[in-house]
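Quiz preparation item.
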């Protein structure tokens, strides 16, 4: 049986107390990734060649370009595309960058990590919510102290921008295990019984205004993903019931695998035999993200499916994409794809949707960002740097970024979007500059910054990325931030101000502030609002954008802390009986009619309009760990464990507190399953966080924000 992993507090303590022991190894390596791999281990070099050989088949696929109007796979190559110099390099599996130097600091913690773990202290910290408020506070403080000292210690040793470190020994590489041949199995599901949920005890209000010492916590403390057995329990380190749920989740996830030419390339969005399939039998890029992460965090990791997915979707990006007579940008990634068996050609064929078949006919702006972020997670987990260094992969990244960084008429660094271009893929009034896309954009820019090589226009692109990262973080931190003080300022805004001296930069009319915000805004806490554009601030809370802003460090440390404060203060509204509200509050009445266009699927407190989405649990958990508040995540996980499996893993829940299974929700929704698994694995082994979190970029001069009452100095 898997052993329990230590808590966050224990992990910090272990890392803090551990002087490098005899087995510890500190080394600084200079060179390209492949050079490092080869210098470190000749065996590693052989494994590299095996990997090169493995991808060759996929590279052949990548050379095929399709000109099909219906966006189905066509294996004849287009002469126009073949003339692309990058395509010609398809056979060069790994390209070396002579002027790419990476400094890698490696601290082996394995020896010390298992020695000091005490199951007792684990219990204390993870089940802290059962204790008194005071002891909870004390425990938090001691955790926070550990965070600070770790942060200080590690910052001394690594002050450069975080990069994808190279391993010093082949066993640390997390090499892809040889995939076993698998078959896709159609599952049969039983109808599920709903259970009554006990009332959530109302939490006493904490009125202390204090900034969280976890701000500035360094992820470098987690930089080595701990693969030792005690840290690896695949999420089944809880009680009997929760272990059974974890086991069921792994089984279901496996059943959702989609195969193409014998290789697993993704997961189905849902496997609900009782509902119309619609497009839920497809592999969605955004839905695969948590599935992919689950496979990476698993013990042993299953990175093959992630690699195959990344390469297959890259191949799809290369198709010519048309909707009616209009050709979409080269870099657009599909929203989803499916594998069909072509009975004429007697072979499998791929069908992809770039938005042309989606309900709103909008291209998925988020797909390319998720793809880049997943590529970094894969690299961080496996240390297989060769994949990201492939010319085709570099090209794919550049194409995605070119779509976003090209010159235009913009006066803001944010990306202008159509309604329905992301997880909320129907009309919901998120057009303009939605926080979800801005946060993903920022995250992807920073991930790409770590992986892009300077050759072939990469250097210029990196310069553009750097400028955009700086401008975007300033813009979001300055103009999207809302807390009690800021709200009060906006409430008293003057209008009709011109020139750069204007305080009310976007000419927001204070009368447009909705009534609910005044009640919703706690004295302690704050958040990044949904959208900012001329004379328009969308004050709604969107969980995904706020969590991604924390994980990517788009939000400042103090803002990240305040966001978590808000989640605590508004638990009933944002979490309720089933985590987590995708957006708060719901649009009702006239607003619902005008903003959604009378959308019957998006009625109040349902689906995208204030519905509760279990998949979001992983994002909250990651943000909680990053801000040093694992106990909040634990509380949300407990809620999920009361119902999710018994209800058949629904896609979303309805109602103001998320009590009812969503009206049109699919059951056995894969990302509800994988989101739960990741949350469990991150809580049990917080070092998993490095796969989806970035350190603060120290080169960005943070704008001096006026501190509000929520952030006393
Ligand atoms: C729904 C969601 C979308 C998701 C898709 C597949 O349409 O709105 O975000 O990708 O289902 O699960």
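Solution:
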């Amino acid at each position: 049986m898997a052993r329990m992993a230590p808590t966050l507090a224990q992990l910090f303590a272990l890392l803090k107390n551990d002087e490098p022991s005899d087995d510890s190894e500190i080394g600084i390596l200079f060179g390209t990734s492949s050079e490092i791999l080869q210098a470190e281990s000749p065996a590693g070099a052989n494994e590299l060649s095996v990997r090169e050989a493995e991808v060759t088949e996929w590279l052949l696929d990548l050379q095929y370009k399709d000109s099909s109007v219906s966006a189905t796979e066509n294996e004849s190559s287009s002469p126009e595309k073949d003339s692309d110099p990058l395509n010609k390099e398809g056979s060069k599996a790994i390209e070396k960058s002579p002027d790419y130097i990476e400094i890698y600091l490696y601290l082996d913690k394995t020896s010390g990590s298992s020695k000091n773990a005490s199951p007792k202290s684990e219990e204390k910290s993870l089940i802290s919510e059962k204790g008194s408020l005071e002891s909870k506070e004390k425990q938090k403080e001691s955790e926070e102290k550990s965070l600070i000292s770790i942060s200080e210690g590690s910052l001394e040793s690594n002050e450069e921008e975080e990069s994808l470190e190279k391993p010093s020994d082949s066993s640390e590489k997390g090499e892809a295990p040889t995939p076993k041949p698998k078959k896709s199995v159609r599952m049969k599901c039983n109808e599920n019984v709903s259970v009554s949920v006990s009332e959530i005890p109302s939490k006493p209000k904490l009125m202390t205004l204090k900034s969280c010492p976890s701000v500035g916590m360094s992820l470098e403390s987690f930089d080595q993903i701990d693969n030792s057995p005690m840290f690896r329990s695949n999420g089944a380190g809880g009680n009997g019931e929760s272990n059974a749920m974890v086991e069921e989740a792994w089984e279901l996830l496996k059943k959702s695998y989609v195969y193409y030419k014998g290789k697993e390339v993704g997961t189905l969005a849902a496997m609900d035999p009782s509902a119309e399939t619609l497009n839920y039998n497809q592999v969605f890029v955004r839905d695969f993200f948590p599935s992919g992460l689950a496979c990476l965090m698993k013990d042993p990791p299953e990175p093959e499916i992630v690699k195959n997915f990344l390469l297959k979707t890259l191949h799809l990006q290369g198709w010519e994409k048309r909707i009616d007579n209009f050709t979409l940008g080269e870099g657009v990634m599909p929203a989803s794809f499916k594998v069909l068996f072509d009975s004429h050609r007697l072979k499998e064929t791929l069908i992809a949707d770039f938005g042309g078949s989606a309900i709103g006919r909008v291209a998925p702006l988020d797909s390319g960002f998720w793809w880049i972020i997943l590529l970094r997670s894969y690299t961080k987990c496996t240390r297989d740097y060769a994949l990201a260094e492939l010319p085709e992969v570099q090209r794919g990244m550049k194409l995605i970024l070119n779509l976003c960084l090209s010159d235009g008429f913009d006066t803001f660094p944010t990306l202008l979007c159509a309604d329905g271009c992301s997880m909320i893929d129907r009309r919901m009034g998120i057009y303009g500059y939605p926080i979800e896309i801005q946060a993903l954009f920022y995250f992807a820019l920073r991930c790409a910054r770590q992986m892009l090589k300077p050759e072939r226009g990469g250097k210029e692109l990196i310069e553009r990325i750097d400028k955009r990262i700086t401008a975007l973080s300033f813009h979001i931190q300055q103009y999207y931030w809302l807390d009690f003080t800021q709200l009060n300022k906006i409430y008293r805004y003057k209008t009709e101000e011109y020139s750069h001296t204007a305080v009310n930069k976007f000419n927001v009319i204070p009368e447009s502030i909705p009534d609910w915000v005044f009640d919703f805004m706690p004295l302690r806490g704050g958040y990044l609002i949904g959208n900012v554009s001329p004379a328009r601030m969308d004050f709604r809370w969107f969980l995904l954008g706020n969590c991604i802003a924390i994980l990517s460090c788009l939000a400042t440390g103090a803002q990240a802390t305040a966001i978590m404060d808000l989640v605590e203060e508004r638990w009933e509204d944002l979490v309720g009986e089933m985590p987590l509200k995708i957006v708060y509050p719901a649009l009702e009445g006239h607003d619902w009619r005008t903003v959604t266009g009378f959308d019957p699927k998006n009625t109040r407190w349902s689906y995208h309009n204030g519905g509760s989405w279990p998949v979001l649990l992983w994002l909250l958990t990651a943000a909680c760990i990053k801000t040093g508040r694992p106990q909040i995540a634990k509380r949300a996980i407990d809620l999920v464990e009361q119902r999710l499996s018994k209800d058949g893993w629904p896609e979303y829940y309805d109602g103001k507190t998320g009590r009812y299974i969503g009206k049109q929700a699919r059951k056995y929704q894969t990302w509800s399953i994988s989101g739960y698994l990741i949350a469990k694995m991150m809580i049990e082994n917080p070092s998993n966080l490095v796969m989806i979190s970035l350190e603060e970029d120290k080169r960005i001069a943070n704008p001096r924000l006026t501190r509000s009452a929520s952030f006393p100095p």
